[in-house]
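Hello Y.,

Per our agreement to keep a running log of every chain we model this quarter, I'm adding this entry. I've kept the format consistent with earlier entries: sequence first, then predicted structure.
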Amino acid sequence: GGYGSGPLFGRTVDLYGPRILLASAFVLLLAGYSVLGYIFDSGLPAASKTISTLTFCFLILCRIMTGAGGNAGLTSAVNATSKTFPDRARGAATGIVISGFGLSAFLFSTIARNRFAGNTSSFLRLLSLGTAIPMIVGFFFIRPIPLPPLETPEEGRRSLMTAEEEAGEESPLLETSA
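Predicted structure for the entry above:
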């Protein structure tokens, strides 16, 4: 779900902005991890050694939902960040956003080990809320901030000229030798 949804989500955020994807990420992550937790808590039916085909299909659907939800949030955040920062800082800014998403797995696994050791159900609830809530918070705060217009190369050159050069529009660097 995560990687397969990338082109669709990229086009969506370009056309409509990050809010629609952040709302979608909230729903997908909350529902996906909640249903995974429900299936885990339900366990195997009595006298059965495997899960049913329907349950297996729900597990696959939930994993697609959580992957797509995570990708929707990441796509929104990276898109807004790349539109907000100038070229010289864009790589570092988007790198910080991507690192934050990547390090969240470390954070959640550390919390689970320290607070919910051996309790998969609680870990799935943590993932459900811990991944969905930041998406809905981002819904209200993440937006591209337009950059000020850039000078054209000609305007930039003019701002460096002295008054004498502007009057004659000549520069010793631009003179051709005969």
